[in-house]
Amino acid sequence: MKAEPVKEHKLPTAVLALDAASDGRQLFAACFDGGVYQVDVDTGNFERLLKHDSYASGVWHLPTSQLLISAGYDGVLHWFDLASRKPVRQVRAHRFWSWQMAVSPDERLVASVTGQYLAGGYKYEPGPEQEPSVRVFDVQTGELRRSVSLGPSVLSLAFSPDSRCVAAANMMGDVRVWDLTRGELAAAWATPDFTSWGIIKSHHYCGGIFAMAFTPDGHELFVCGMGPMRDPMAGNGKQTWQRFAWRENPPRKTGEIEDGDRGNGLMETIEFHPSQKCFFMAGRLAQGKWNAALFDSSSGKLLHGLDTKMRVTSAAFSADGARLFLAGAVGQQKKKDGKLPEFGRIKAFHCAA
Question: Per-residue DSSP letters for 20-31?
Fold first, then answer.
């Protein structure tokens, strides 16, 4: 399978999260300026639906109820009714940022993760949580359903295909899966391959697992980010994904990207194609040939890689799998005629066998 570029649209500021309507004609973008925008795929015309008090970091379209839920660095979740074009509710999920959010496939639950990295000791290990880092809310009422802890900063999360479980991972490579129906921890493990301890320029931890996705059958969990670096400011760790059989006791790593397939740079999004035959990973390019790539779901083999000429923060497929949408940003330029040039980007690709 290959992804061929079709369209490119500009937004005022960087896009931090993206979701697509099921027909692939409308996109929803959470942006650097706090705005959550609806974007027409064909024309590129956009409309701001709501605004957070800080960066908008997450957005999710619920096709059954025609709701839009967004999250931001203000720690607030917003509900918006697309039919009436009116806000429904706001819920303060965290005192700190919402790093990422997700809605369960059955559209009943919305989860958000947080966590501030504060040094807990002279080795700069993360200190204790200031608040529970994983919170799950009822979509219909906004009520808190579940609140659990995983050491900060918790950067990524995902619901299982059956909506029974939620997984989350943090900066230190700790991964947890909770069974929400039973109210218990279902799996716990750690991988050291995404976290750096800086010994050049600055001494601290950085990195972590930036995105995750369950396989369509729910048996495995994929995670991505970048490999360890000696200089945490360089951003040149190896492009990395790993997969785990999380139901086994203990959970077992069943595969990872081949060394010959990867370059260097932070990978920030991972998504399965609706056909289930391949998955997509993308992010930033430090060195190498690609910052966005399709991989075979079974073998993990690289199928197609491309340099998108932008930082990719989020990706979404149309429901039929025919189109792939990438969101992110290009380098921010200086003001021209008193205005900042638009640096947010959405690119549409045609997926061909």
Answer: E-TTSSEEEEEE
Q: What is the mean pLDDT of residues 234-259?
A: 96
Beta-bridged to residue 161, according to DSSP, are none
Integer distance in angstroms from the first to the last C-alpha of the chain? 4
SS percent in the chain: helix, strand, coil, step 5: 0, 55, 45
Residue-wise pLDDT tens digits, 165-211: 999 999 999 999 999 999 999 999 999 999 988 777 777 888 999 99
What's the CATH number where 135 sits? 2.130.10.10
Q: How many domains does the chain fold into?
A: 1
Please answer whether residues 79 and 87 qualify as being in contact, where contact means their C-beta atoms are separated by less than 8 angstroms.
yes
CA distance 257 to 268: 15
Per residue in 209-232, is it b (16+ CB within 10 Å) or e — as a string? bbbbbbbbeeebbbbbbbbbbeeb
Domain that holds residue 259: 2-333+340-352
For residues 228 and 222, give the distance between their C-alpha atoms in angstroms, rounded to a whole number: 18
**Whole-model pTM over 0.85:** yes
